[in-house]
Every structure is written in structure tokens, then in C-alpha cells.
Amino acid sequence: TDQIDVWLASWDGRQALQMTRSAASEHMPRWSPDGRQLAFLSDRADGKAGDQVWLIDRAGGEAQQRSHFGSAITGYAWSPDGKRIVFTAEVPAAPQENPDRPAPIVIDRLQFKSDTAGYLQGARSHLFLLDVPSGTVTTLTDGPYDELQPSWSPDGTQIAFISKRGADPDATSNWDLYLIAPQPGAVPRQLTTSSGADGDFDDAWLSGPPRFSADGRRVAYLAGGAPADLWYGLAQVGVMDVAGGAGAGAGAGAAALPTAALDRNTLEPHWSADSQWLYFRLEDDTSMVLARVRLADGRVERLTPRGSVVSGFDVSAQGRVVIIHGTSAQPGELNALERGGPRRLSHHNDGWLAAVDLVTARTIAAPGAGGLDIHALLFEPGGRAPGARVPTLLRLHGGPVMQHQHDFDFQLQLLAAHGYAVVAPNPRGSAGRGYAFQRALFANWGEADVPDVLAIADRVVADGIADPARLGVGGWSYGSILTNYVIATDTRFKAATSGAGMANMLGGYGVDQYVRDWETELGLPWEQTDRWLQLSRAFLHADRIRTPTLFLCGADDFNVPLPATEQMYQALRRLGVPTQLVIYPGERHQLARPSLRVDRLQRYLAWYDRYLKN
To answer: Cis omega before residue 400 (within 30°)?
Structure first.
């Protein structure tokens, strides 16, 4: 099950109280300013309109539905006085007249697909004000663009949010911060003017909403890199003065970037209680640590140990810090952060962890091109005899700008538990090693990263861990794309799994949600045909592949659509290479149904066992 409930933990860690118990899931809990009510989002009413705002009294009792909006609420924030809630929700261009007789889908937008929303027509996300006592809703914004991630100023006179505007918002990723008075008819004022994406419209987990300092004079947010860098640029903490100038030491009209010297992705900024520091998550070479920067002089302090991951955190008005902290052998749990380090507050995983044997990953390195070491995580199977070689799997991450890190990964633990050494490399293009390391993959797929993957494979063979005759490889999304490049380059791998990937880039133009991004990275295919064909070499040279490969994809994937996977399956099937295609009905890029996620894991094991153990 994927059911999620809301719990409370006491600060001393001695008590944990389950607040919700419905059959539906609850998420995004937010305390009212006076701490008496807890709001959350849930679709527990009838599931038709989607997530709505619910309130539950801290003293107990049943939760009460407070909003009854016609579509799902995607984000919200309490006003400082607790009387109103600003929320975001999508407004359809036109209501469906008869659900039993669907109308044709008419497309006229440049960006016309989204993996989460499907085909994009005229629907846009806007801001609304919910009067908490009465439940009435008023519209705050409208127009042919989206508004997301609202937050209130401390005095309640302004709401910050992000929006992407201009003549054709679909033509760029130029999201900016705006301010608006919480009154119908108010005119927004643009705060940031960079050409990149300010705020993370795609994954609020990375950034959260823009946040005001305690005095309301500054806003902290996630500042994106140059548009030409796409996802290869760095996401960094930004600070902007509400009056329109820099927040800390930059010129007028520009944002301050107090973490720029770190040359790392710095995410999810939160103010300290005295507004002198900004806390943030620092993505740093297989770890995600909590750090803070002092705005007066740029001093950075790392607050949690390397070799672990902070996947979320918050800072109270009194200065208390809570984090979700975990390692490769410990799923994330709620912790208080104190001078001595993290202190556990929750113990949700203790019961089942006591019944299983987990592997603690260690970091290994191999020399890459240009004298640069390439890093990877290694999960050695329990019970491996000294000197014994074992079947070994290289599991490649998606992104491509992501990293394997020291957090709990059930899939990697499961593979290790079945007797495989599991290697999780971070080749060029991965996060955690700085801008140049990420940017090396730009328009260079399979050239910059395949040698790094093979160097890691050579390392585990040279160390006497991997059996060179029993090597496997696989991944999902970009991990699948890289898998296709690897098996088209090197025939040593005896089994591969390739999920939701692409190999025929030219044939994929216009079928996924990234057409604007591909044009930035590769150019227009009729103008830069050679470049598109170069990146299509795993498909165009499929006749070089000898590795038995299992292909998988969701039937409704708009991120990397199914036809891209079908093409590779068809090529290998035609060439007589052992292959199989698994299509998950009704699923998008990330499989939602738990039963199908279990099925995928079982198929991974069966495929690898068939070719690496028999």
C-alpha cells in the first residue's frame, strides 16, 4: 500500500501519535500559526475532485474538510493570522460536458505534454484565497500562465509565488518570483528578473516555496542556472530584497547567491530564527548534508555527517531544527538536530529492520578520463567468502543530473540480498561533483559517461569482487538510456534491464515532454541532424548489441514515452538477441500501483538470475 498518515512526535522522542487513519493518504501537513489546528491535503472525500484542504484540531477529533474546490489543490500556505489560506489549483479551460462522451483533444500549445497531467490544453494553475471560518473561496490570479508555490510575508500584506510569463510561456523555462497583495484584483509585481528558472516548478521537494525572512525584507528561494545549461547548471540558494535589490551583497536588481563558492547544488533554503543564517541541503558527492551559510560573511557550516542523506528539514521560529535523516542501511527517520548531531524522534522502521539483514554501502573510486576519479557506491552481498567472485550488477541512475547517494534504496538492497554485488556509479553528468562535472554530459550522452561506467566495472573486477563472466547492467529513465549506450558499446554484459528509456533520439522528437529542452541541447533536428543522429547511435547500431535485455515501460508515460522502448525491443527482437517487453497498463513514468512496482522487482531478479546465475 501507498497509504500515508500524519503523525506527531514529541520533541523528547518518547511519544508518537497517529493523527489520521483514513483509507486515503494525507500529505503536506501545516500547523496553523497558533498551533491549534493542523491542515493537510487529502482526497479522502470522494476522490473525484482530488486533494482538498482538511483541518484537524490538535486536541483530537475528526478531521473536517475545509475546501470544496472543483479540482485538486496542489499547494497552500496559512496566513500569519490563521484566518485565510492561499492555495494553488488548476483551472480547466472548459468543463467536460459529458464524461461518458469525451470531446476531441485539441492541441495548440508548444508545450503540449506532461507526464503528470497528460495532454496540455488550456488549463492553468492559479492562486485562490480560502476563508478558513466560512470555507468561501475567492480568485486571486488568472491568465494564460501558471502560478505555483505561494507563501505569506510575516505581516500578511504580501504573497510570494513563482510564475512563468511572457508572450509564450511554453517557449522558455524562465520562472520568476512575484509578489501580490492578498486581495482580489491586485496586480502582481515581478521580483526576480534572471533568465533562468527561479524556484523549482517541477519538484517542490528540491526547493519548497520562496520564504520570507522574519522581518519580511528578504526572500530566499532556489535560483536556477543559465537557460543554456538546462538541468546541467547548478541550482543554488538565492536571496532577493523585497524592495527589488539583492539580499546580501550583490548589486541592485540582482540576486545574491551566498552558496555559489561551494560549486554544488544547494537546495531548499530556510531562514534561521534571527535571519542571519540560511539553512539548506548540500548535495555533495554521494551525500546530502544539512548546512547553513552566514549571510554577513559567507561562512558555511556543515551540520550533518557525510555518508548520510537529509531528505527534508524545517526550522522553527524558536530556532529548533528537525530533519529526515537516513543512510544506505537506515531508512529516513525524523531527527532533532542538536550540537551533538541528529537525535532520533521517530522509530517507524525499527520493527521490520530487526527482521532483515541490510548492507551498508561503501564508496569506491576508479580513474576516469583526464585523471579524474569516478565514484560509486558498492553493496557487497552478505556472506561473500574472502576472495570469492560474485555476479555483479551496475545500476545506473536517472536524471541525468542526479546522484547515487548514501540513502536507503530498497531495490539495491533487494538485489544485494539475492547474492549480487551491486554497484551504483556516478559518471560524468551526475550531481554532487560541481558544475563542470555535470556540464560535461551536455549533448555528449554516451560519450562522456559510458567510459566512466566501464571504469567502475573494471575496478570491481580488478578488486576480485565481480565475476567478469557474470556482469549485468540496468536502469530506469536516463539510467535506461545510458544502459542502451553501454550495451551498444561493450558486449561483456550478460544481462540488462532497460526501463522507460530512449535510444532513437531523432525518432523521439516531439513525442515527449522535453521538446523545448532538446532544442536547447541539440538544436533543431532539421538543422543539426548529425547531432541528433549521433545521440541515436544505440538504436542505429543495435546490431552491435549481444546482451539479453529486458525492456519495461508504462503505457501512458509522457516523460519518455513507450514507443521509444518499443523501438529498442523491436530492434533486438529482429536481430535475434534474447529480449522481452513489459508494458504496464495505465502507468506513467513512475509506476504508481504498488503491485506493479513489486512485479518490476520480481522481473529484474528473474531476468538477472536467468542469465547470470544459471
So the answer is: yes
| 66-113 per-position pLDDT tens digit | 999 989 999 999 999 999 999 999 987 666 667 788 888 888 888 888
Q: Give me the residue label for grid cell 521538446.
A: 515
Question: In b/e form, how buried is each residue of 398-433, taking b as 16+ CB within 10 angstroms?
Answer: bbbbbbbbbbbbeebbebbbbbbbbbbbbbbbbbbb
> Is 578 exposed, middle or buried (CB count within 10 Å of its CB: 0-12, 13-18, 19+)?
middle
Q: Provide the grid cell at 64.
A: 473536517
Looking at the chain, the number of H-run helices and the number of E-run strands are 11, 35
- Residue 581's contacts (CB-CB under 8 Å, 6 or more residues apart) are 551, 552, 565, 566, 569
| HEC readout, 128-157 | EEEECCCCCEEECCCCCCCEEEEEECCCCC
Map residue 285 onto helix, strand or coil. Answer: coil
Report whether 533 contacts 539 (CB < 8 A).
Answer: no
Query: In residues, how long is the chain?
Result: 614
Element (H, E) at 39: strand 37-42
Q: Among 104-113, 232-241, 570-579, which stretch is predicted with the lowest mean pLDDT?
A: 104-113
Q: Are 203 and 227 in contact (CB under 8 A)?
A: no
- Rounded (5°) CA angle 447-452-458: 130
Q: How far is CA 120 from the centre of its chain?
A: 21
List % helix, strand, coil for the chain (3-state, nearest 5).
Answer: 20, 30, 50
